[in-house]
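Signal recognition particle receptor FtsY structure dump, as promised
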Amino acid sequence: MFNWFRRQKVQPEQEQTPPAPVEDTPSEATPTTSEATSQEEYLDWAKKAFKNIQEKKATAEAVVSETPETSIAETEPPQEQEPVKEEETEDNTPAWLKKSDRLEILKETAIETPTEPDEDFIWSAKVLANQGRQAEDVSEEEITWLKKLRQGLGKTRRSLVNQLKAVVGQGPLNQDAVEEIEALLLQADVGVDATDYIITTLQNKLKQEALPPEKAIEYLKEIIREILDAPLANYSNPGFEPEKGKLNIWMLTGVNGVGKTTTIGKLAHLSKQSGYSCIIAAADTFRAAAVEQVKVWGERSQVEVIANPGKNTDPAAVVYDGIEAAKSREIELLLVDTAGRLQNKKNLMAELSKIRRIIDKKAESAVVESLLVLDATLGQNGLRQAEVFSEAAQLSGVILTKIDGTAKGGVALAVARQLNLPIRFVGAGEGIEDLRPFSSYEFVEALLSGD
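structure tokens r here:
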């Protein structure tokens, strides 16, 4: 079972000096990121990872195809039958031959399996290699996710990278260059504060030494990772992994329409997939159809939903029931859906405070987190809405959704810089598999690596 919560977080020293490759050895060690590292080494590493994944898939398929079919003996006594027409004659083809024929038909109609890794696979493999991973340990799920992440940030990347290269590769930044970089970053909704920090830091570096465009982009990546990772210093759980053997309670907050209910379902699926027991408390009792939507996602993720069928049910009462259910069944993760109304800030704060009091009273030893769901397509507008929830709830992180539908992926930096909140999860698609724990290294590589 692949545990997404325990994927190794990249440390600065690992980014710069992962193990060097060893030729023709079983360890298939990772290539370095020094200048001496060639694209051929990365390609070789990617091919090894690709071959290993294909072999695992072939083994799994062979096990399925070799499973014998159960035959049931005919127990009814033979009866006299009238002669049948020629076209109705019984098919005496052996079962094994029928099975073989079916396999041949499947082979003829199946989509051809690639024999070599494509460009997206090679990029994904390089990102994993630079994090110190071994080729034989890479999973297909990770490759698939990195492809989606890169594709999801494509709009933002294409509007940034080429133009940035043209500007930062010309030595110290003059006023025109500063204004051009500022415009590019603000268009990507990086935010004024983060933009000023990036330009000042980059300008200081370029005054010290001239950097070619590629090197300047690499330095820019370091600056952005620093911004994204800075809020983690305020939290004792930087990896954001549910504690095994304890009750973890995650409250999800956010305005209506940001994908909060969908995110609840995806988190439930991710938790089950990673080996945690999980239930959902449907405490958004005021929005029409909210509870039913949560139930649909609960069914999809095979997670039980605790809900009260009555109208205008007290959200705190649902949370109470959820805690009782989680404790009695020794559940490890309770996900709480909350209301997203902004019409009345006072009522919102009172409701979230009441829910938090119930949690603190009924689950004193639980590990409690409060996550804000933020729609990336809203950019700075979403950030202003987020500030209301930041005041109303004791937030411990942000889930950034819908980055695949916007050129404003830079809002992630604004979240870290302006709200001083770490991004915990990122969503890049509508599927149940399209939400994963956030990695600043992978995000920045997907954002600033050229096509």
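The CA atoms of residues 276 and 320 lie 21 Å apart.
lmk if u need the other ones
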